[in-house]
Design a protein that fits this description.
CATH superfamily of the largest domain: Type I PLP-dependent aspartate aminotransferase-like (Major domain)
CATH topology of the largest domain: Aspartate Aminotransferase, domain 2
Oligomer: single chain
Number of helices: 13
Helix content: 25-40%
Structural class: alpha/beta
Largest sheet: 7 strands, mixed
Radius of gyration: 21 Å
CATH architecture of the largest domain: 3-Layer(aba) Sandwich
Strand content: 15-25%
Order of helices and strands: HEEEHHHEHEHHEHEEEHEEEHHEEHEEEH
Number of strands: 17
Amino acid sequence: MLQSLEALHTSGVYPKRDLTIVRGMGARVWDASGREYIDCVAGHGVANLGHCHPAVVAAVQKQAAQLITCPEIFHNDQRARLLALLTELAPGEMQRVFLCNSGAEAVEAALKFARISTGRSEIISTFRSFHGRTMGALTLTGQKKHRTPFEPLLPDVTQIPYNKTEALSAAISERTAAVILEVVQGEGGVRPADADYLRAAQRLCHENGTLLIFDEVQTGLGRTGKIFACEHYDLAPDMLCLAKSLAGGLPMGATLLGARVGTLPLGSHGSTFGGNPLTCAAALAVLAVLQAEKLPERAARLGEQLFDRLRAAHLPLVRAVRGQGLMIGIELKQKVTPLLQALQARGVLALPAGNTVLRLLPPLVISEVELEQVGEAVIEMLTGYQHAIN
């Protein structure tokens, strides 16, 4: 009944699984029939603190009874505290923040800020990247399947191979406003960047008066084992895009700005709902829990355990296991969709990252027992599927 009702009225742009989720707690969700699943989709990386974390629920309930909306033409207590905390946590010297509602919006803001700050129009992004589906973010996204139906897109965007310093050196010039990179490509197959490549990108940007933007919408806020993935390499971008898990499940994005980003003219950008007190209160609770419970460090430790287990299994269907922290990609020798269905039947929800990569994004609060169950289910599923096709 619920599925048919939703199918009747939905836009049609989302592929739907045969599953109606009605409740969540921690790393688990339940469907309409009461069946329980370990959630390694986590809202495409939104639920770093799991579902309905008590601290986030309490913050939202308290703030909802006090003040829900307040545009940025007025000051606000929750917003002020959040801006201060984000800049305190940020890598390098990032003292300004633009608040919005999503990762795509954070990227759109960075695109505008780069052009108006430098007076240049050219932007460099990479193949296989994913930065969002709005027109500017889509132009930066390096995947033809997303881009082609909507061309022509924005002009003056050049795409180059990822992790290739020579290609970046050849492409960047005094005409380049910004280079935008993911520290780990998520939708592009869970592909970490090489440390030397990222350091070269920062150097080349500085040499050419170009701004370096890191899209940490999926990798930020503890997912890779640090608050920000770029901290693994002691890097300081000029802009850093955040969203997904920032407000614990409520829609929020942020673009953090470094000193090399010039003064932004009044009225050059804005957001009706960006920085509203409700999402700011939720984000403050999220950041407090991340720090108090040392969730980034926990993600590093648990991720390494799962990596070791998957690699030690020597599964014939697996080409490679890669990622960082609790952002794990398993590259397969076949298409991933039927394997996601088989894993769901074993009580684990997971994601694709392209046609042949199985992606796991478990909540950072997942218990060690639950993570062992995930590893066991993945190994059993892949082993059983290999036997079935032999």
